[in-house]
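Q: What would this chain look like folded?
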Amino acid sequence: MLILCGSGDNNGAVDEINDWVARKTANKVKKIVSEVDMESFSALVLVNAIYFKGNWLHKFYDKFTVDEEFHVESKSAVGGKVKLMYNPRGKFFYGVNSRLQCQAIELPYDGRNMSMFILLPNQTATNVYETGRKLTAGDLVNVREAFNMKSKRVRLWLPRFKLDERLSLAEMLSAMGMSDLFSDGAADLSGIDGGKNLHVSEILHRAVVEVNEKGTEAAGVTAVGVMEVSFEIGRQIDFRADHPFIFVIQDKVTKSILFLGRFVQPTFLYN
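A: My prediction, written as structure tokens:
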């Protein structure tokens, strides 16, 4: 969606952008820009939205979900309570990576073309931030290979959670080498309006991810203002995500990563 500004009707532009975002994300994201944001978007706003809703191939049962403690820094440090879901006898692709000191499990959605991968650090040896720093693009795109995943019987505990994050990306992207895009006179955006006076003033991103017993519902919007472990054969594995972890939602056909995030600490007891 491309909105040309400059008419002075910032309120109208804000409403138009946010209404479009709400429609495209099934009301998971209802607001991406405000009137304050529009004051810096002097020429145009480019908005991109992605919405995903997937039902688990192997669903959790509501009757097994209970309130449990979530450990943040160590096994003794409790960060709050979560609704911990439980799947007692599922068969999942599971593996470990000794370099990352981490285990991983793949949770497929109906149709098997999409999956959520949970990367769970070994809490006695590392933490989620160290694991994140060691992760490579190849690890994320090829999780099965990176973790040598095999089909295993797994008893799975996973929090029911909802995350909502709004980020400013201009400084981050400039540091990654895209500084010309944000510099007056340096970027060539003449393909938009025929002139060479445009540059990007800000990039805003908001993502909402909700995980429950039935599956995952997620939406993301970006607004641009111009441990090695061995197991006996047949042994059932316990995968208990009661401490910080990384999650990846991937299109298995194209290997595109749609959502990537960390669940670090519950801020409230999910109702």
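The chain has seven helices and twelve strands.
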